[in-house]
Specification:
There is one protein chain. The protein contains 3 helices and no strands. It is mainly α and 86 residues long. It has one domain. It starts with a helix and ends with a helix.
Length: 86
């Protein structure tokens, strides 16, 4: 991720958190407070998080992170070697 993208995502996350805080701490009518809190939460989880995940995982192989039999064997092999050295 380049610096501009990181800054845009950080600004979006901060604005979502600000909307949540405004809805909770602001002197608003109850319905409007719920709207601010819900909107900030929805934007954070439906817009900012998927954008971050998509941009951060770009160029990485998903196969390395899945629990395939080969990866399980690698993990078990490392654990037994570490246990013998202790």
């Amino acid at each position: 991720m380049n610096r501009l993208t990181k800054n845009i995502l950080a600004a979006a996350a901060l604005s979502c958190l600000g909307a949540i805080a405004y809805g909770i701490l602001g002197e608003l009518p109850e319905a409007e407070a719920h709207r601010w809190t819900g909107g900030g939460t929805a934007a954070l989880f439906l817009l900012v998080m998927p954008a971050f995940i998509a941009l951060a995982s770009r160029g990485k192989s998903l196969k390395n992170y899945m629990l395939t039999p080969e990866n399980i064997e690698k993990m078990q092999g490392k654990q037994t070697k570490d246990a013998d050295n202790q």
